[in-house]
Amino acid sequence: MKILVLNGPNINLLGIREPDIYGKQTYNDLVEIIKVHAKEKNIDVEFYQSNHEGDLVDAIGNAFYNNVDGIVFNPAAYTHTSIAIADAVKSVNIPTVEVHISDVSKREPYRQISYIRDVAVHTITGKGIAGYNLAIDYLLEKVFNNGCDN
Q: Under DSSP, is residue 71 helix (H, G, I), strand (E, B) or coil?
């Protein structure tokens, strides 16, 4: 089983950007935490982060050609603005879990809009970095019904 962990704009600034909202752990911490979890679950995990919308669309398309089984995706600000990214997720038909570190439901009104939510199989918000591992578990248990097999 192969899962792509995809991150949008400013996720590379974790630990620096608004630590009172996003926490003090860095992007590298996030990657390491997910790697440990993936190893425990016996799955392959790939990572990609970009601040550019088109790069994220390309990464989603490439996931199809690279036989990715599931996507854990924090589109960040593009959640609220990008129909192109939502269309890409819909086009490849790879089960995708939308993740947000903060609880977007308790933030600014524009953050209540999610173009990704309608094409994702599930959404996890407000669980901090732990939300990524929860998303992996959701894919394994609810979508693939296998817990941790390859």
A: strand
What's the token pair of residue 127?
């669980």
Q: CA-CA distances (angstroms) from residue 50 to 57, 75, 97, 130?
A: 10, 9, 18, 21
Residues 48, 90, 98, 142, CA torsion sign: negative
The owner of tokens 């792509």 is 4
Does the global pTM surpass 0.85?
Answer: yes
Question: Residues with Cβ < 8 Å from 133, sequence gap 6 or more?
Answer: 33, 34, 37
> Which residues are CB-contacts of 6 (< 8 A; sequence separation ≥ 6)?
47, 48, 49, 56, 59, 60, 63, 71, 72, 73, 74, 75
pLDDT digits (tens, 9 = 90+) for 36-76: 999 999 999 999 999 999 999 999 999 999 999 999 999 99
Catalytic residues: 22, 100
Phi, psi (rounded to 5 degrees) for 5: -100, 110
- For residue 99, the tally of other CB atoms under 10 A from its CB is 30
Distance of CA 28 to the CA centre of its chain: 15
As to burial, measured by CB atoms within 10 angstroms (0-12 exposed, 13-18 middle, 19+ buried), residue 98 is: buried
